Each structure stands twice: as structure tokens, then as C-alpha cells.
């Protein structure tokens, strides 16, 4: 293995929990702070790479003097323009190799009209191209066609604003492309197949696979019957395609399983050895067979073991889907057996469905989640998840930790994962705050608030309300109260921020009350009164709670400030609060008031 030395060296390096993903430069200003930044930065980088590739492809003549050592062909500009001119089979082969669908069909028709015979191998290659693209155009041809149409539009309507003219048409084209190519009747693939003087098994198999890929399931089955009538044998890939089409050919569960078994029997009769994709196609069909599928799936797994075929991630995913797809189905212990097998192996991609949906965190079982996490960290298994899905996985895993684990373990995972393995969402932060509350570990809230500011979530009302509610609920030691007051000061500053691109946050009664209470408990009476209570409550017509009034009154008592207590009584009376009489009585009893103050 050419990479053996590099892989050995890489295995000696551990992940740095303080570093961002390796795709980003080691620069604080260029590292993402949250999931939205991560996606934006990653897409921007890929966009730049694609733009560079586009320039090289469009203007290869300017990149003909590139010399590198060692020469890596995949990094070199591709030759995308035909080099062979004229009407010949060699020119047709070149255009097929360049994936020029329309030009290949036109050249084939010219050869047929000129009476020039085209070999069976070349015709089959053309069928491969047509069936792959569904008789549509390749990506390069679509781009060239779009440019021609835009240039034609510019010439036809020069007086119309370009952006106004093209936008609706581009949007319409994009809508057509997103729907994907479908199999049209009497398309070029079918036409060329009918006029072929000679057809072999490859010709039939290509047509069947193309029809299945592009949704013509009934035509594919009819083509398979024609293949049998011509006494040809299908290959394993064709049988895999036919088995995957079974749910579209039959409606009843028993009929689907019977047809799938028929294809498997035909494979045995034609001495076609099944592979991993064959069994995955069977399991994918059984996913749509209800309870019958669950019963038969275990027999399929046993047959795989008998043939010595190791399951892929898609195999396990199909199996778990059948046993855990509905809440009405009683959970079985099969997931433990699956994870016991998965965590021992380092997988390689073998099926397009590998790693598509493999998550145990929704089962609310921390032991299974740890097993799955161990399996994911085995070798290169984590590479099966895209960056977005990897972040979703870690987000679910962390939420489960907050729900099920001890707070020390939660904080350890949070420190190692945050902004390294994943970027916490506002829901993850709420889960963490609830875990801190449940464990009576509220002294960690100030550090969580610093993370919230760094992640750009400091203007999320739900987070601010939860933070203030937890900090102001009970009295804490003075050191913690001072830290809470600092957080309250930051939150007050966030509410007072205003700018062209920011909508000012709306003050609520609970927010005002909590901030005032935190200031009062920290002995910052002036901040509590003049900045929050007297001005804000009256300005925005909000009502302070009894807890806020009592907290501020206690602060005035501790600092022996009767003037502040009197102001509080006047505020309560002006707002018509029932607590005004109680506060008045307490002020008269517990403060030594002058005649003027009375």
C-alpha cells in the first residue's frame, strides 16, 4: 500500500480539542464560531476551488506550461474538446469518452445514414452513455447550451435589462433540472437499441439498468423478459437493479417478496454469484414489506453469513429501519447485536446508502449511544458522515448526555467537543443549562455565557430568559453573585444595542426583573434602580414581580438606604401593586425615617 507510511504516521497524531476542522486556516478570524459560520466558510472554500477548476476548464490554453513533480493526473487540466474531426467510429468513441451525449447521437446517426457499420462494442458504449444520463445531456453540455441560450436572448432583446430578462428563465431551467431526467418513450436509447443489427447480453443489461435508474420499472421488467426469450444471461448488476425495482412493480407485500425470490432463483439458475449489493437490494425491498420484511430480513442476513459476505453500513441501516421505524413496534435487542459487530470494524464505502442514516441517540439509551460513538471513532468510519450530518450527530449525542449523564461527564464532553467536533446549537445550550440546573451546578453559568457570546447566540431571547431565570432564582455566595451581575450587565448591554443591521431586543418584565434582582443581590443598588427599575419599568409599562420588589427592598435594608426603599414604595404605589402597602409597613417598621421621609 502506497499510503501505509502516511497512515502509520497519522495514527500517532491525536485530535486537538482546541482546534477547528482541518479545512480551516489556523487563524481566529477565519475559524467558524457556530454551525452557520461553519457551513458558510466551508461552502465558500469549495466555491473557490470550483471557480478555479472552471477557469482551467474554460481556458486550458493558458495552462499548458504546468510542470509538477510528481505528476498527479487528476490535478491537471482535463482535455474536454474533441481532437478527432470527421465522421468515423474513432471520432464517435472519443465523443462517448468525453460524455458528449448529443454529439455522440448525431455522429452515430451520420454513420448509420452513410452505411458505415458501427461495431457492437462501440454501440454498447453509446447505450451505456445514454442510459446513464437518461437520454439527457451531460453537465458540460447543459452549461454550454445555457450559454448559447443566454447569448441568443441578449441578441433578441437588447433593450431589456439583462437581470430582469434572464432571471425568470433561469429559474424555470433550474426547476427543470432539479426534477431530474426521466425515461421518455421512444428515446434515443430505445431507438438505437431497436436498429442494432446484433444485440448481446450487455445491450439488454444496459437498457434494463438505465430504465430502472430513471423510473421506467415496467419497461425494465419487460426488457428482462425479452432478455430471457433471447436466451441471454443477466449480470449481477442487472439483477440488483431489478430487485430494487420490485416495490414499484408489485403492491402487495407477499407479491413483492415472491418476485424478489424469483429474481434470486433466476440468479441461481444462471449461475450468477450474488454480491453485497444484491443482499442490500433485497433488504431495501423488504423495508417496504411490513412485518413480512422483518421476519425475512434475518434469513437474508444468515444467507449472507453462509456465503461469507460481510455486511456494510447500509445492511445494518436497512435492518434497524425495519425493527425501529415506528413507535408502535416493541423495541428488540437486535440493535445491541448490530452495534457489537459494528464497533469492531473499520468500514470502507461499498454501497451508495452506506452511512445514510445510522443513529441510536433517538432511542434515549446512553449505553447504545456510547457504543455507536465508539464504532464511529473506529478507523475512518466517521468519514461516512458529511460535515452537516456529523454536526447533527454530535448535537444529538450531546443532548442525550445532558439528559442521562452526570454533570462532570457532561462538562468534560462539552469542553472536548465544543467548536472542535461540533458547534452547539441554541437547543444544545438550553440542554446544558437544564443539566446544570438539575445538578445544582449553577456556578458554571458565567463560563457558558462566555461561550454563548463567542458562538453568536447572545441575542437569542430563549437563551437569555433561561440564563436570567436560573441566575436570579436563588441567593448565592457573594463571589457567584458578582459573576452573575457581570453576566446581567452584558445582557443589559445586548438589549441596548441598536444598529442598521440589528433589531433592538424588546425588554420583557421578567428580563427587567431578573437583571434588577441580580444587580441588587450583588450590592449594585444604583445600577438596579436607576438603570433598570425606575426608568425601564415605567417607560415600557411592565410590572415587577413580588420577588423583584422584595429582593430590591432587602438590598436597601442591607445597605441601610431608606431613600431607595421609599422610592421602591412610591414605584409600587404608582403601578397600583398590592405589595405597596406591605412594603410601606416594612419600611416604616425597619428603617429609622425622618419626618420628611415619613
UniProtKB/TrEMBL annotation:
Localized where?
Mitochondrion
Identify the stretch(es) annotated as Disordered.
Answer: 140-183
Q: Name one Pfam family in it.
A: Rib_mS39_PPR
> What GO terms describe the biological role, i.e. biological process, of this protein?
mitochondrial translation; regulation of translation
- Name any one GO molecular function: rRNA binding
What InterPro entries has UniProt attached to this entry?
A: PPR_rpt, PTCD3, Rib_mS39_PPR, TPR-like_helical_dom_sf
Q: Keyword set for this entry?
A: Mitochondrion, Repeat, Ribonucleoprotein, Ribosomal protein, RNA-binding, rRNA-binding, Transit peptide, Translation regulation
Q: Where is the composition biased (Basic and acidic residues)?
A: 140-151
Q: Please identify the protein, giving its name as recorded.
A: Small ribosomal subunit protein mS39
Species of origin: Eolophus roseicapilla
The gene it comes from is Ptcd3
